[in-house]
Fold:
Amino acid sequence: MELNTKLNHLSQEQKQHFIDNNISRTVAGSSLELDYSKQSVSDAVLDTLFAWARELNFEQKRDAMFLGEVINHTEKRSVLHSVLRASDERKKEVLGTELADEVIITEQKMSTLVGEITSRKRLGFSRQPIKDIVAIGIGGSYYGPKICAQALKPYSSGAVKVHYVANVDGGAIEEKIALLEPATTLVVVISKTFTTQETLLNANFFKQWLLDGGCSLAQLSRHLIAVTSATDKAIEFGVSQENILPMWDWVGGRFSLWSAVGFPLACAIGMNNYLALKEGAYEMDKHFQTAPLENNMPVILGLLGVWNRSFLGYSGLAVLPYDHALRDFPGYLQQLDMESNGKRVNHQGELVELATAPMVFGQEGTNSQHAFMQMMHQGQEPIPSEFILPLTPHHGHEEHHKTMVANCLAQSEALMRGISLEEVAEQLRTQGLPEEEVKRLAPHKVMPGNSPSVTVTMDKLTPQAMGSLMALYEHKIFVQGVMWDINPFDQWGVELGKQIGKDVIASMNGEASSIDFSASTQGLLAKYKALNTKS
Ligand code: F6P
Structure:
């Protein structure tokens, strides 16, 4: 029998069984531990998943990625973000001396710039030190630095404040500029392509804001830095060559934190902490490359995700960090997971028969318990969840921490255990309710349980642990791409909206557009124009 047919059979059997609460399954790697005891899997399921991965030559495919083979075939690119966290020696082996030297020089340049800024030696046009950084970028040029800076706030150098501008919303811009002085602000434009509409609009705005604030054209170089693989476009925009930190086409946007995209983060937490983050990611790379599949954390996390999505048929995935510092981590994972594996065709361009990426959502800690977790406990379909729990806090509020950890453990237990009609009825009777009332109320209080979860723990949310966590999820996405036979490293699905956006703007400007809009869009455009056209 083919292995995925066998998995289909096993899933029918598994659906008849409750998660076995006597089983303890954990795997450790780098500074993390994954507890996957509360998954709806038997040993037979796990064995078959590992066998299937081997049958698909998973190990060779993983090694091909680390060696720089062209695995992103629709864009004809290698996928080498991992080499950016490896030793210089390894960089030379994988990239060749010339390219490795370019990478190493960029890292040194970034380190010098970070040093100048965090030591307050970089002066603006009025000879005052730079105090604030506006990091302009969107998607992968935004999420990684933003969520790591948030997660690692206790490690903040305090020398400079970093503000992130991603969305095109005048309201957001107003909020930022109210806090900033052009004379002491450095604008960092992060865009791999340097063509992203939102980023360019914001970059142009802030360039003009600097000029209006007293910075001359000649002084702009003190205030403008670009991180991009399109150096020519950045120069055309007005960034001087020495202020450009290059990146390369073999680093995908949502995997780019490890390139100079991490520059604003390094300014926020200092270069040493940024290097420790990379070190943590590198530790996870080594674990991923060397641990046998049965003890390999990204492999196990990835395979369980495929099992839940493609065989048990669960369409959601809740990411639940029990740490305020990780509150935006689910948003980052939405891009990482859904932009990577939210695809319907395989490498050959044929429809994938199995269901692919789940709908990822989430929120920090106990807040989610008072919002969407009702549906996780009593909705019509189990929603697998991933709890993320740093075991010791950076703060000294022990009672708060204890309560939060207790809630985290209680939720995964409740999701697995549920409560049956008989148990509910018994509880109600013990409360002294009349039998009629017991009958009426009991069905409303039943929770089916059997909802699978994993819990990822770490001793503390240090830069190393955060690096390992980021790499764990990057590799999980890769594992799933192999199992579904899809390319996680392109994102053609975002293109059509961008193209039509240009047509919509043309129409707003009274120019011809290249498509006929639907009746709905025409109506909405007319409404917009009626209220926004100046007479
Ligand atoms: O959302 C599409 C996307 O292409 C992402 O993959 C990317 O991270 C983001 O836009 C920003 O792109 P760039 O860095 O080229 O501005």
